[in-house]
């Protein structure tokens, strides 16, 4: 009677970064109307919380979907080193052309993590503050 | 559909070791989790039941009953135990968060008679958890497509 199970593993990471929401095709008055104080010219920052969810078969030899000994350095090298203690608008190349809203940050982190070789990246969730959270997955 | 989640905690010891691996391979794959004397966690278990409330009571289920089931099936088996040695359902498996959560799902699924077991979420620490849900064409039961 037992049905097959879907098992996923979620690991939480943290990074601190600054950003500014500003569309260069709009004037500053329009940016302020659209983004409010997030458009202030010198930027501001957050303690972001990143949750990475992986899924796939549980390897019977290890009992694991993915070994944290592989996932942690992969996230560190592909995301945290580039994002932690950085100004996202200028220090992360992808945000030279896209606005680093947390929606876009979610999508960019998913894109960077997707090649993880040992399991499928099912979801990326970011808490920008304890009141705002964003999720991205590739399920269409 | 309504989903109700009840949380319990249990503290347990474990270590990871695969007898088919060499000592060196065990250390390489499992790192400090391979310490043969074990280590422990305060596990936090969140169990979600889904269904429709009974119009007579306004409740999907009596949370006291759910608490009793979680205590009997999980806490009495696992709280202040060594998961490698004292939980027969985990015998022959490496007591990772993935395997413990799946064992908990199997222990609970037939015991939940009002509503349906929807999700087992097991936190090993605030930074690591595993979700078990029913596999329904790759999507969680009840989830919108």
Brief account:
Chain A has 140 residues and is α+β, with helices and mostly antiparallel strands. Chain A contains four helices and five strands. Chain A has a five-stranded mixed β-sheet with strand order 3-1-2-4-5.
Describe this protein's structure.
The complex is a heterodimer of chains A (140) and B (145). With 140 residues, chain A is of the alpha+beta class. Chain A contains four helices and five strands, in the order βαβαβααββ. Chain A has helices at 28-35, 68-83, 88-91, 102-113, and strands at residues 5-19, 44-55, 86-87, 120-129, 132-136. Chain A has a five-stranded mixed sheet with strand order 3-1-2-4-5. In chain A, strand 4 (120-129) and strand 5 form a beta hairpin. In chain A, 29% of the residues are buried. The model of chain A has no long low-confidence stretch (mean pLDDT 95). Chain B is α+β, with helices and mostly antiparallel strands. Helix content of chain B is 26%, strand content 34%. Chain B contains three helices and six strands, in the order E-H-E-H-E-H-E-E-E. Chain B has a six-stranded mixed sheet with strand order 3-1-2-4-5-6. Chain B is elongated, with a radius of gyration of 17 Å. The model of chain B is unreliable at 141-145 (pLDDT under 50). The chains are: A alpha+beta (140), B alpha+beta (145). The A-B interface holds A 1-13, 53, 58, 61-65, 67-69 and B 16, 18, 20-21, 29-31, 93-99, 101-102, 105-106, 109-110, 126-136, 138, 140.
What structural keywords apply?
heterodimer; A: 140 residues; alpha+beta; 4 helices; B: 145 residues; 6-stranded mixed sheet; 3 helices; disordered C terminus
